[in-house]
Amino acid sequence: MTSENGTDPTIAALFGAPPPDGGFSARVMARLPQRRNPWRRLWLAAVAFAGAAPTLLPSAAAGAQSTPAVSAAALALAALMALVWLAAEAATPALPQS
Amino acid sequence: MSAGADDPLDAEWISRVVVHDDHAAFACLVRRHQGSVRHFLRRLVNGDWARADDLAQETFLRAYRHLHRFDGRGRFIGWLLRIAFQIHLGEQRRRAPLTGNDMADEPADGNNPEHAAELAGIERQLARMRPEEAAAVVLHFQHGLSHAEVAQALELPLGTAKSLITRARAKLVRSEHRQNEEPEK
Question: A34 touching B, CB under 8 A?
Answer without folding.
Answer: no
